[in-house]
Amino acid sequence: MRKIFILAVIFISFYRLQAQGGFQTFSLKQAVEYGVKNNIAAKNAKLSETEAIAHNNELLSIGLPQIAGEFDYQYYAIKPTSPAFASDLVLFGLPAGTKVYFDLNHNINTGITLNQLVYDTRYFIGIQTFKHLLILSHQTTALTEQDIRYNIIKGYYEVQAAKEIIRLLDSNLVIIQKLLHDTRETYKEGLIEETDVDRIELGESTLKSQINNTQNLYDLGMSALKYNMGLQLTDRIALTDDILSLRKQIADAAPASFDPSQRIEAQLLQTSITLKTYDKKQRQAGYYPSIYGIANFGGGSQVNNFGDFFRKQDLGGGATASNWFDQAYVGFTIKIPIYDGGQKEASVKQAKIELQKANNDLENFKNQSTLQVDAAKTTFGTNLIEEQNAKESMRLNDKIYGKTQTKYKEGVSSSFELIQTQQDQTTNLIRYYTAVKNVLTSRADLDKALGIQ
């Protein structure tokens, strides 16, 4: 009964730990998928796509009707006066020097104005660029996600290789500690010299130092992997794909051909060329006329007393009239560029230069990416050869170590030879797993250079 209770407590605790997000397991595929969704750079790239859509809508709205209302109220504490000729004053029966006012104390003007772009070549060219701006945003997101995948894959390889090396070193430490114990017992019996004990103790110390250094690399690599995945550095995770199973998932053969256009960077540069071409056309369109339409409907009123805004004038005989007067108009404006001191010419020249630079960048990238592929293929091939050599060295060293152990037990071999052989074995094991890791990371470099997602 007590055992059942303990198992239940352990199960509940483990369930709660997982429910709280305190423990998560990831295969390489799961780590990549999680990182693409949760990495801050990936999130910002998605937000930039949404922002690009909003920006396009903002530019598109320039060609839609622009309607604005207006309400203007003025109170003249001192009314403005206007000059008048004496003859005019006499005509109206007013004495000379009389001040003439054309404004009443309270003035209100209100209305609604509609402005509409009728024709502007620059706007219509701008509309054509909207689709390419969205494409550029999508491609930028794809490039960000590619970099995130690449960093996670390489980080996963580094961590799992360090983990395997630590496991091997720990296993060797157990062996050497047992050997050290047995050697000390033999020394106490006076059958060997103290130097034999010292040699094994030195080997143990060296091995512990290796374990400590590799553990530090593992911890640092794990932190970097969490960061690239968008996890908190305090999150607890476990990686389920070991280094050898990951090695089986990649092919040793590299593609014979390479098309630079497969690279997302090339696609970005091509889209940039398209946008710069439209930019040049848009600047050239500055020489063309543009037409804008306008319509307005409104009204106004002037009264001496504020309350009269809401009363009607008494015209006598029972007739009344409103203090408000309506007005409306329609019209259009044609803007024709005539001379701007060479401003447009200089602007167009700059656009042509920017377009040429973009074409040069694309051509340069094609050569650069081809060079990257050649270098990545060479590195990958070299690492494959090193992996085979390390594997063969490990096999031979295992054979030598086994024979040396047998000789040592029989008293034929010295502790120095045994420790040296054990150190050689550790070195070859580390060399092999490092070679496997290098094959994996160089394959990741090659896939990136080839534009393989």
Task: Indicate the topology.
Blueprint (H helix, E strand, L loop, with lengths): L1 H18 L3 E4 L1 H11 L1 H21 L5 E10 L5 E2 L3 H6 L8 E2 L4 E14 L1 H68 L5 H36 L6 E4 L3 H6 L15 H21 L5 E14 L8 E5 L2 E4 L2 E11 L7 H67 L5 H36 L3
Parallel strand pairs: 1-6
Antiparallel strand pairs: 2-5, 3-4, 5-7, 7-10, 8-9
Helix pairs in contact: 2-5, 3-5, 5-6, 5-8, 5-10, 6-10, 8-9, 9-10
Figure out the total of helices.
Answer: 10
Task: Provide the β-strand percentage band.
Answer: 15-25%
Q: Could you list the spans in which at least 5 consecutive residues all have pLDDT below 50?
A: 5-20
CATH architecture identity of the largest domain = Up-down Bundle
Rounded to an integer in angstroms, the radius of gyration calculated over CA atoms is: 42 Å
CATH topology call of the largest domain:
Outer membrane efflux proteins (OEP)
Residues in helix, %: 55-70%
The helix/strand series, from N terminus to C terminus, equals: HEHHEEHEEHHEHHEEEEHH
Strand order of the largest sheet: 2-5-7-10
**What is the β-strand count?**
10
Query: Structural class, from secondary structure content?
Result: alpha+beta
Report the end-to-end length measured between terminal Cα atoms.
54 Å
How would you describe the shape?
elongated
Total separate domains: 2
* CATH class category of the largest domain: Mainly Alpha
CATH superfamily of the largest domain, by name, is Outer membrane efflux proteins (OEP)
* Average pLDDT, all residues: 86
Largest sheet entry: 4 strands, antiparallel
